[in-house]
Fold each of these.
Amino acid sequence: MPLMTLRRSIPLILFATLSLLLAGRALAGGPEIQHWTTDNGLDVYYVQTDTLPLVDLSLMFDAGSARDGELPGLAALTSNLLGEGADGLNAGEIARLFEDQGARFSSSSGRDYASVELRSLSDRDTLDAALDALVRVVSKPDFDADVLDRQRRRMLVSLENSARNPGAVAGREFWKAAYGDHPYASNPGGTEDSLEAIGRDDVVDFHQRFYVRENATLAVVGDLDRGQAERLAEMLAGALPSGEKPEAIPEPSLPESAQTIRIPFQTSQTHIIMGHPAYARGDEAHFPLHVGNHVLGGSGLVSRLAIEMREERGLSYGVSSSFLPMRARGPFRLSTRVRTDRTEEALEVLRSELQSIRDHGPGDEELDDALRNITGSFPLNLDSNSKIAGYVASIGFHGMPLDYLDTFIEQVEAVDRESIVRHFQEQVDPERMITIILGPENNDDD
C-alpha cells in the first residue's frame, strides 16, 4: 500500500542539519544499540537520538516468502493486506488515523521477513495515538474477502507485467535454478495458480502463525529515553498475540555442477545472470567479500567489470556483482545486459574477471581505493533516523553483534588481500555456477 505521509512537515533545513550531525556522529563511532527482551518475549533494539522530535519503529517478523509453503505469494498477500482493513475500520479510516497524528505507516515483505514501519512525532499523546493505530493494523486485521480479492487481482496484474520484463524473468529463473527445492527458490510474488488458490483462511492462518511477538523483532530509534522506549515496547508486546517461533530456514546447498540455462525472449539485449548461494548474514566472510566485491563489480563505473566490459570492450552499459547475505545462505551474482551477438564474449569476460579476483585478489591500489571508498561513504548510511532504524532492525533480526555499526570501519580496514582470496575461494565456486542467458536466439553463438 502507498506510504501515509507526514502531514506535519518539518522544515528541510532541519533535516539537512540532522544529516550533518548524524554523519559526524558516525565518523566518531556508530550509534549505541541497546537490547532487551520484554517480559512476554518481544526482542527490542533501541537507539536514542535527540536531534529531531521523531521516532522510527520497525517491527520485523520471520514471515517472508520462505514461509509460503505450498502457496507462493501468501506472505506477500498477507503483508499487502495490512492497513487495508482492521478492527472494523476500512483502509481510508486507517489512513486517517495515521494522518491525524502526522504519522507514516508502511508494510512490506521479502524472502526472509515481513516488516511494518511507523514514523511519528515523539510527544507522548501523538505517539500513543499512532501506536494504537499500528497495533490495530498488525494484531486485528480484518482480511475482508472482497479486499483480499482486490489485492489478489493487483498481484496478478503485477505478475503479468513482470512476465514481460526480461530482467525480472531472468531473476526469477536464477533463484529457481540456484536454490532448487529450497524455500528461497519460489517467487515472493507467487504464481498465477498459487494466487488463485489462496483463500481467506490461508491468510488468516498465516497471520496467526507468524505475526506473533515471539517471532518479531522491534527496532526503536528516536527522541525517546530508555524508560519511554521500554513503555512503548511493552505496549506493543502486550498487544501482539502470543505464539511460537518457527523452525529455522534450512541452509541451501550449492548446485552439484555448473549449469547454463538459455531462455528465448524477445528483447533488444541479452540478459545474463551468473551465481550460486554464498554466505549467510553474520558470517565472518562478510567484510572480506564486501571489499573484494567492491573491486570486482560493486563500485559502479570504476569496478573491474565495468572497466573491462564498458570501457575496454564496449560490451555493456550496465554490469555488476553482488553478495546478498540472508538468514540462510544468500546468493552471489554477476549480472549484465549485452548485445546478443556478443554474448559469448561477455561470458568470457565475466568468468575471467571472477577467476582473477578469486585467485589473486585486488591489487594494492585497488584495495586502498576500495577501503577508502567504503569507509568514506559509510557515514551517509547513518545520516537519518530511518536509515539507522533500518540497520538496527536488520542487526536484531539477523542476530548480529550490537557493535556492528560501531566497528564497521575498523572491520573494513582490517581486510587484506589474503583474506579476500581465502573467502572468495571458500564461498564462490566457478565449477558450480548457475548461468541464466535470456534474450533473442542467436545461432551464431552455437
Amino acid sequence: MAHILVLDDVPEAGMLVQKILGKKGHAVVAFTGEEEALAYARHHRIDLAILDIKLKRMSGIAVLAELKKMDPAMRVIMLTGYPTVQTAQQARTLGADDYCVKPLDKEELETKVSAVIGAA
C-alpha cells in the first residue's frame, strides 16, 4: 500500500484522514506543522501528500511547490474548506492531482486516493 503524508493545521482533521486511510492498509503520517512535514518528506519516500490549503505559516500551495521540488513525481491531493476556482487552478498548475472539499466525505476521499495512487 501507499506511504501517505497528511498536513492539516487542525489535528483532528489529520487524525481523521489517518484513520480512514489506515483502515485501507496505507501507512499514514499526519502533521500539523509545515516545517515538520517538509523535513519528514526530505528523508522519507512519500507516495501521496494530502495537504490542507489553509495552514498557519505557509499556504498548502507553497508546501505543494516545495514537495514538487523534492520529488516532481509525488502525487498530491489538496484539501480545503474554502474552495475557489483560483485556488483549484493554482494547485493544478503546481501539480496537484486532485482536490477534496471539507468536511471530508469518507467515500470521496477513499475513491480519490485510490484513483490518484492508481494513476502513479
Amino acid sequence: MTEFEKLKEKILAFRDARDWKQFHSPKNLAEGLSIEAAELMENFLWKTTDQSYDLSDTELARVKDEVSDIFTFLMYLCHELKIDLVAETNRKIEKNAKKYPVDKAKGNCLKYTEYE
C-alpha cells in the first residue's frame, strides 16, 4: 500500500469513526471543498504578493490547516464518486500539455483560447 493509499484509509477511518459519511453527499462535499478553499484565501486577504511569500509561523500554520482540510474534502469527494485522483490528475496533465504547449505557453499567462 502506498503512502497515498494509507493516508486515504486514515482519512476514511477518521470519518467513519464519527459517523460522518451520512453527511458526505457529493453536493455537500463540493460545497465544503469550496468553503475550505475560501478559508485558505482568507489567510492572504489584503496581503501583497510579496507578503504572501513571507508568512509568520502562525499564519503559515493556519494555511497548512486549510490546505489539509481542502485535501481531506477532496479525498472524501473522490471516494464517494469513485474517482482515482492520481489517474485523473495524470490524465489532466496530459490534456493540459496539449492545450498549453511549451512553445506557446512558456512565460505567459494566456488562456489556450487566446493563442494565435
